[in-house]
Amino acid sequence: xxxxxxxxxxxxxxxxxxxxGVACVAATPHxxxxxxxxxxGADQEAKAxxxxxxxxxxxxxxxxxxxxxAEDLVAAAKTYTPSGRHDEYVLFSSGGQSGQVFAxxxxxxxxxxxxxxxxxESWQGYGFSxxxxxxxxxxxxxxxPVLWGDTHHPALSETKGDYDGQFLFIGDKANARLGxxxxxxxETKQIVKNPLTISDHGAAFVTPDTDxxxxxxxxxxxxxxxxAPPEEYKKLYRGMVxxxxxxxxxxxxxxxxxxxxxxxxYWQDLADAxxxxxxxxxxxxxxxxEMATGxxxxxxxxxxxxxxxxxxxxxxxxxxxxAEAAFKAGKAEKINGFPVLMLPTLVEGGVLHFAPEPKSPxxxxxxxxxxxxxxxxxxxxxxxxxxxxxxxxxxxxxKYSGSDDYGVPVLDFDAVKEAQVELGLGPLHTxxxxxxxxxxxxxxDSAVARWSLGGETGAKAPEGPWKLVHKTPVQYNxxxxxxxxxxxxxxxxxxxISMSKWSVDRFLPTGPLLPQNFQxxxxxxxxxxxxxxxxxxIGVGEPHYCQMIKADKLGSWKxxxxxxxxxxxxxxxxSAPKKGDEGVTRNGNKVLVKMTAVRSHFxxxxxxxxxxxxxxxxxxxxxxxxxxxxxxxxxxxxxxLSLEPGEFTEFRFVADRPxxxxxxxxxxxxxxxxxxxxxMHVKPRSGAxxxxxx
Amino acid sequence: xxxxxxxxxxxxxxxxxxxxGVACVAATPHxxxxxxxxxxGADQEAKAxxxxxxxxxxxxxxxxxxxxxAEDLVAAAKTYTPSGRHDEYVLFSSGGQSGQVFAxxxxxxxxxxxxxxxxxESWQGYGFSxxxxxxxxxxxxxxxPVLWGDTHHPALSETKGDYDGQFLFIGDKANARLGxxxxxxxETKQIVKNPLTISDHGAAFVTPDTDxxxxxxxxxxxxxxxxAPPEEYKKLYRGMVxxxxxxxxxxxxxxxxxxxxxxxxYWQDLADAxxxxxxxxxxxxxxxxEMATGxxxxxxxxxxxxxxxxxxxxxxxxxxxxAEAAFKAGKAEKINGFPVLMLPTLVEGGVLHFAPEPKSPxxxxxxxxxxxxxxxxxxxxxxxxxxxxxxxxxxxxxKYSGSDDYGVPVLDFDAVKEAQVELGLGPLHTxxxxxxxxxxxxxxDSAVARWSLGGETGAKAPEGPWKLVHKTPVQYNxxxxxxxxxxxxxxxxxxxISMSKWSVDRFLPTGPLLPQNFQxxxxxxxxxxxxxxxxxxIGVGEPHYCQMIKADKLGSWKxxxxxxxxxxxxxxxxSAPKKGDEGVTRNGNKVLVKMTAVRSHFxxxxxxxxxxxxxxxxxxxxxxxxxxxxxxxxxxxxxxLSLEPGEFTEFRFVADRPxxxxxxxxxxxxxxxxxxxxxMHVKPRSGAxxxxxx
Lengths: 694, 694
Fold this sequence. Notes:
homodimer; mainly beta; Immunoglobulin-like; 6-stranded mixed β-sheet; 13 helices; globular
């Protein structure tokens, strides 16, 4: 295949370096890698393949040996991505109860990277920087560490309803938190805890210009972490939705400009923001409008039955510009110190309307043109489509069928309904393509349904409006699905992911705990052609939702912009040690260590401390080459850092355990990587050396 | 492709269930998946493919659209594994400073599952079960939590030098710990902390029948976590190797039958156990026989230079049966309570010999027949091959070239050396195939070298003994490599993994922190054909070493053997709640919760507590279907469990924060999964309900 570019010159250089015992040994092949080798893709761009009979014979031989048929070979060709060739899309997926986000290349379906959000992760040095670690601090709830999350719905930042590739938001269902990831360095910058509710579900969803990040609720509770027994459910339990104001320039949520809406104690579920025709609105569906309180232990129907009795639940229609105006006009009350627009305010101000929706729905999804809202009732074989024109007209005309127990007006179903399309069993979520189709996951059918939209957008589909076109079986039990940019104003089509929740027999057994199955469907053709072309086991968490962005929209940094960069503040840090600054200074029992790291040594290599010293330790990674990452760990002190090129880190700890502790680089950075180490000597209070045989 | 097996009968059944609002809704498609659908592989076994011109045209069209050439299509065919077809091998890889183990299918190169070992991981419920969590307890060092590890070398258990698929051991370099994984349920069962040293490197390696798990050291220190300043390095710092006795019946290391060997303060590195011809020995290489102590901050050469000055370091040759006899004869002294055979005992008893080895070696690898030890000096372009016959003869004849500073006899280099083979720059590690070849990683060359062995084993290679045959470039900076069963008595050949440490331009940029690159090489043919056929980004850690086992050797459980199984003890637990047992009982402020979990509800659904209650909570997962896993979390209490089919779990906590806390199932288990929840009501000491607007 590729020829080996180790030139005679490089060889002499390396041997000379080895002879001299100097530091640059391993920089050589890397520098060469960057300059001497061309990306493979570039070499081939002009050539068109024509397979010779010999090549066809070779291919057939391999296929027969591996029992592949022609269809398999085509699927392989649609997904296989040779060394050095880059994927076209990046899928950002929640990691479920792993608490993380996963980035996967499409169509190769390779996990490119995990991004730690709610769970400390040592490879990334996330949450392992000693006492008062900023990640660990940001993850505290009511003063206690809560070091995991249940990530459900990632939301890429948008500009005019299209992904802009700048930020990624992710919700933690278990603990009602929101994480903010900066896609320049793929690191979590902020964790926000909802002050009203312990857990949520409907986060994160953004408004079309990312003015707000929407965090919907789920299990009704006493807002503000309150207590009430189940008998007081109707009176004291409530739902909510929070609108977190995003400050794009700072890359942070501005809690001071954020507010919430009190909602009835139905279980609000997923949200989607209106766009284009429906800009200014967002929509949330709900279930358990029965207000069942379970109690199977007392002979009551369990929640699963009690919450599924009624034929209709409530689609929540929220005019967020009106809500924002009410908040700014000071109409919010405070709960647990956080401003909340209470139900009477919402009703009075026309902020909140309901529309009936069949039956325990799970998803509401707005079409690319913003004209239609698609609701999938998981216990109803149809999707129900609402039109924003009808909704606006019904609101204007007060076409109500009544109001709920909390006084919220309920719009007449027939007045707002545009269409219902029968798809099959257990419809959950819907995405869109560029050909006038919608795609809905069918959990119970274990299938993806393709159906045609109506209106102008649907006119591209040859089958006519609101028609089921095709179902492709998936393996098994699909939850969410995701098409390329499939929830934006301009979906790309081409690729669709079935997030199949059960894998059962698809992969080698991995003990009783099995991976999920991300299945790639080729949706590039119209009509009934929509094959599964790849199965990807996900054995690092249980993802719930994902979004797929064109890779060229991402402006990832290859290294930090300057040496001494503080990633938390995204600027050069004046505290970062420079070359020549290194050393250990002491003021009483307070010790400051200034260190630099470069292939392949730390300066200093010995740090002498006394038992009980309070240590502040600063390290600057002096590297500028892409991928020249170092690690830094101190054994038994629970400290591990990832020092990416240019990065500055500070950490603190009390040297409370005497002994001789090696520290070392935890990333294989060079041929002399194992020699990139030093010792921290913590002298015991007694002052004596301890011989080996004691 | 596949047809949808939703029968009319299934549809009626499900609709009836929905109508009744009962629990079994989602069990249906799963049962159907297991019984109604055949594995795809089975359908095709008899058919041989012949590509029609139309199929070739279709393939060519896809290839041209994606700019693939014929070679790419062949590589795709060698690796692509259609839905439902299982991989041939499982690669168990260390996860580096992620602290975990990764299982990857070969040849598809898909990450099947991570296994948590040293770092708590919430998806697996590993380390998130409240107060006194057994994982968190087992990870404490000197009474403090050390919640990450730097996993380096996995070791599959062996019988007669061959993988038996029963257990996997993994070392934590940063904290000198060993993890024991049971491959029936793929869970970590034991963490052992080395009592002599803070950090290590050369773990884990097993003797041919897994009598012992070898944990070699690395950075010399004062044994027993002692303190001494660097000036006392030669006098008080020491290396070590520990032999952990493995009790296969119990599936645990027996610490009471384990012991260590004191070694000079060279940096012992990797180990390999002898086998067949060399059974009873093991070998460790070393570097920094210079005993450099660094100190670049004082103008000394940094460790990387100081530890690389000498032309020769010491291969450690250890007769472990003699060591075991000396330990059993009571010749060990105690350090930090642990028995250690001191250097004079080792020298006197003929347990330890040295052989010179060029220069800062990184790996020592025993050939499948046990006859040869291959040492790769990372700063020497050769591999040096030693013969066990020569070693035994030299020991018998006392062919010494002298002894080191600690009195250890050094065998004459020429007397023990069988061959040296020049391979290229930066040779590190060696593996073997079934065709008489060895494969050595070349870090600085970024290549895998294939070379022929000597002796009977090497006679299969047509090139003659001890010859470099071919080098395949890899991208970039390969560390370890791994061939199928390539470090056992019977390697399989076929597949080889290059664990390339840098990926640079191979994948889409993922911020400044990039994945590693596992490259699959097809080594099925002899001679100079050895192409790279797949690049797998590893963006969840930085793996160091891996082993590849034939999948059919693994006897993984699909579900736990009985309902109420305690995975920690691998037996039915009498405390596991049964159906009908459920409830909450109170004794003063001590509360016992007995719960069952089944699709899709918990029993009970309400748990009423008082602030300050000490809670013991037991859950039995009542499921018996493969993949019917439930989760269980309590928001804000830092609790998340993975309840695999049949599993029993107990956890404890103090209900010290009043409020109303939803608990819910964190695995998407059925269509009514979101309804699988309940409330924990913690009544405040004041006793009052807290209204929403307070």
